[in-house]
Fold this protein.
Amino acid sequence: MPHVVDHFIAGAAVKDPAASNTLEISNPATGKPLGLVPMSSTEIADQAVGAAKKAFATWSETPVGDRVQVLFRYKHILEDNIDTLANIVVEEHGKTKAEAIGSVRRGIDCVEFATAAPALIMGRTLPQIAVSTSFCRTEDQGGVGIDSQVDRVPIGVCAGITPFNFPVMVPMWMWPMAIACGNTFVLKPSERDPFSTVREVEMTRDAGFPPGVLNLVHGGPDVANRLITHPDVAAVSFVGSTRAGEHIYKTGTAAGKRVQCMCGAKNHSIIMPDANQGAAIDGIVGSAFGNTGQRCLAGSVVVCVGDAGDWLVKGVIEKAKQIKVGPGGEKGVAMGPLVSQEAKDRVLNYIDAGVKEGADLLLDGRACQMPSGGCFVGPTVFDNCTSDMSIVREEIFGPVLSVMRVKSLDDAVDAVNKSEYGNMSVIFTDSGHAARKFQRTVQAGMLGVNVGVPAPMAAFPFAGWRRSFFGDLHANGEDGMRFFTKSRVMVTRWL
Ligand code: NAD
């Protein structure tokens, strides 16, 4: 019998007898079955929230210095287990080993940042904000001094709903900071590759996390929807598609929750004629085809100014042809499979659509040399694309690069800003003037100059603008701390 993965509630593995069915997960490179995920009942969400609520009473009163000690221990356990976690990610998701290790490392960065909670959540005081003279004034005092302070306090039980594409890292954008701030947490990972997330959560037991501080439940939208409307949940952090994120934001906020939703993307990169050609070509290839294009920071549209398109397209195709496509764990492989057959079918449909819409298919990922049987699609490049084409407008989430050609930087910025998304945008140029204009006019939350993937480190906020994000405070950095705490102001007068 294939293994049915457990929930993790109040520090123990838990089964859900009421789960209606299970989802089979297989290795996308080989088709080998890996296990079953329970599509759980909403009762399992209730049970996890109940455990988190119980733990909150003690955990929120535990000194912050003691709370971060478990994170220090956990960080060392993670360091010792990078390989174990990365291997599971390769197997269930399809990333190459290098990509998987990189993603775990970025998760560890978030744990490290959360250990700074004693400094981050410290409040502020302003003594002597006023002198009370109207009441209780004594002659020798000349009035009574009034002080004020603001504290940051935990908000309660928080829920996290995460996507398939970074199954170890994205949950760590949420729960380490949430619990360092004194909250307790219920995580619902993607149902498509939950095994590495389960390992990530199980390891907290070895670090000495008290039961109920971090809980994990499996399932699909039913479980997620229960969490985002549960009366005992105070805040919801979501990462995933715009379709699901918009729904979660509207539903969660209507139920009175604090909600942040980091969503889908269609990222445009601008190439100026004066750019360093080697750096631009490498940057675009890495951005478009790294992680098989399954990244919210994937640069899937390139807008070339003037004659930049001539050398850029030639260079990108030359490099892309050298990418070895195959199982992520195999030596020399630089691009793994897509996560599932469904994802592969979606990408193939977009390649068909691009051809029908009139774009020039210069490199066809269907014809690339790759193993048969897995969910593979090779690097694909379309040239002479326009803003109205679906391959420019819609998130494909696969290794498909759409190239547009325009006359000026103004035209390029217009093309970027026509997108309904605004997660990230980058420019490759040697001109400070062009870079500055780009920075001031492009509508996106994360920008880069001469880098293909402007991924902010854990100390900086991570999120886009427009339909790439719903909410106010972004993930990570100081924004993350503020999202997982609320402020309380006190005015004091001693008579
Ligand atoms: P998805 O939206 O299909 O699923 C994400 C999570 O939401 C899963 O846990 C899923 O079970 C749940 N979910 C799905 N539909 C739901 C619904 N109707 N109600 C409640 N919950 C629901 O996303 P995915 O395919 O797993 O991940 C890929 C997407 O994530 C891409 O769009 C990508 O751009 C985005 N992403 C964004 C960021 C970012 O920081 N902006 C980071 C990583 C991924």
The mean pLDDT is 96. The domain at 268-449 is CATH 3.40.309.10 (Aldehyde Dehydrogenase; Chain A, domain 2). The first strand starts at residue 7 and ends at 9. The CA atoms of residues 238 and 261 lie 5 Å apart.
